[in-house]
Amino acid sequence: MTSLRPMAFGFHSPRENVELLTQRISALTTERQTLRANGASETPLEQNRVQIARAQWELSYALIERYLPNPAEQAA
Predict the structure, then answer these.
(1) Is there a contact between 74 and 37 (Cβ–Cβ < 8 Å)?
(2) Per residue in 10-21, pLDDT tens?
(3) Rounded Cα gap, residues 43 and 48, in angstroms
(4) Handedness of CA 16, 43, 40, 46 (dihedral sign)
(5) Cα–Cα distance between 7 and 5 in angstroms, integer?
(6) Is 24:16 a contact under the CB 8 Å cutoff?
(7) Which DSSP letter does residue 68 get?
(8) 2 — phi, psi (to 5°)?
(9) How many C-beta atoms surround the C-beta of residue 33 within 10 A?
C-alpha cells in the first residue's frame, strides 16, 4: 500500500499534530483579517493565503493519519 500523503507544495515539514495545526490556521486567519483591514498589498495577502493553504493541507493529512485505520491492525 502506498502512502496517502502526496508531494504537494514542494516542501517537507515535520508533521504537526491536529491541535497545533488548528491553532496555526486560526493565527494565520487572524493575520489575514488584519492585513485586509490595514489595506495590505497583493503580495503579503498572497503569501498569507499560501501559508493558510499549506496549513489546511497539512491538517487534512494529519486528520487522515489520525483516523485512518492502520492496515496491520485491520488484518489482526
Answers:
(1) no
(2) 544 557 799 999
(3) 9
(4) negative
(5) 7
(6) yes
(7) S
(8) -90, 165
(9) 11
Residue found under cell 491492525: 73
Question: What is the rounded CA–CA span in Å between residue 65 and residue 63?
Answer: 5
Where does residue 15 fall: left (phi above 0), alpha (psi -120 to 50 degrees), or beta otherwise? beta
pLDDT of residue 12: 47
14 φ/ψ angles, rounded to the nearest 5 degrees: -60, 140
Q: Could you tell me if 1 and 71 are in contact, meaning their C-beta atoms sit under 8 angstroms apart?
A: yes
| Residue 68 Cα to chain centre, angstroms | 17
Question: What was the pLDDT predicted at 43?
Answer: 98
Query: pLDDT tens across 60-76, in order?
Result: 999 999 999 887 776 76
| Unique residue bearing C-alpha cell 498569507 | 48
In the structure grid, which three cell numbers stand for residue 9, read together? 507544495
